[in-house]
């Protein structure tokens, strides 16, 4: 990530992903305390395509990688209504090594209680939904909420994955694109979506009104855990 337009009050941060470069939409400088993550819409500098970029400082004691949970959920067949990942991995410094924080022992703690450090990781998706604030009717809102519940049930039934962080910012209105609709039509949907429930054709394809995002606090219940694994949010 490189800072550009440094002469402006709110300089932009260009993000390089492989050979592609994206510029954030709008100013990204934020007042207030430091955050453990950075999120932004990114516009490709050449073709104008839009992606959503999420950078997090991942605690090394965490058991699950967010991108790996998405891959497990979409394995063999895409899961309708759930975000897909375009690119992911560690963010590297100029020496091509992962960017990380130093290990610092907590005050009044022994070595076993020392902070293990964090690594900077990035997830990029082309699934760009709309916030719930954009909804203009009660019917639409209820459809989005119903389908968000269906996605979570399908996620658990198929992959034994729990989201564990449902909030108004993690339930999005579905992208209004043919690509998203066509992907969901052939996706896994054992629990039926509202369009299928209301359709006269009982063989109607799934067309979720929602986009479920952010498996950063998710858990794969198929994986055994021990006492050393981080259990609380950080």
Mind explaining what this structure looks like?
Helix content is 18%, strand content 23%. It has helices at residues 66-73, 138-159, 178-185, 194-198, and strands at residues 2-4, 12-17, 20-24, 37-44, 50-59, 87-90, 118-125, 161-162, 171-173, 210-212, 219-220. The strands form 3 sheets. A 7-stranded antiparallel beta sheet has the order 1-2-3-4-5-7-6, with no helix packed on it. It has a two-stranded antiparallel sheet with strand order 8-11. The chain has a two-stranded antiparallel ribbon with strand order 9-10. It is globular. Residues 27-34 have low confidence and may be disordered. GO terms for molecular function: kinase activity. It holds the Pfam family Pkinase_fungal. Keywords: Kinase, Transferase.
């Amino acid at each position: 990530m490189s800072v550009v337009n440094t002469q402006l009050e709110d300089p932009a941060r260009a993000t390089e992903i492989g050979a592609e470069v994206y510029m954030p939409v709008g100013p990204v400088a934020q007042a207030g305390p430091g955050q453990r993550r950075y999120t932004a819409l990114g516009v490709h500098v050449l073709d104008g395509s839009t992606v959503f970029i999420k950078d997090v400082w991942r605690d090394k004691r965490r058991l699950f990688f967010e991108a790996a949970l998405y891959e497990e959920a979409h394995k063999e067949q895409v899961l309708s209504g759930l975000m897909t990942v375009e690119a992911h991995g560690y963010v590297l410094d100029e020496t091509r090594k992962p960017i990380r924080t130093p290990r610092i022992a907590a005050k009044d703690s022994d070595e076993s209680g020392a902070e293990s450090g964090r690594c900077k990781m990035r997830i990029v998706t082309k699934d760009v939904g709309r916030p719930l604030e954009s909804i203009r009717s009660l019917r639409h809102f209820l459809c989005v909420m119903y389908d968000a519940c269906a996605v979570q049930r399908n996620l658990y039934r198929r992959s034994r994955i729990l989201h564990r962080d449902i909030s108004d910012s993690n339930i999005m209105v579905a992208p209004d694109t043919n690509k998203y609709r066509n992907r969901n039509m052939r996706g896994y949907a054992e629990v039926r979506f509202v369009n299928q429930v209301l359709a006269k054709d009982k063989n109607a394809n799934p067309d979720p009104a929602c986009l479920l995002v952010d498996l950063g606090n998710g858990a794969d219940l198929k994986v055994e855990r021990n006492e050393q694994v981080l259990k609380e949010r950080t």
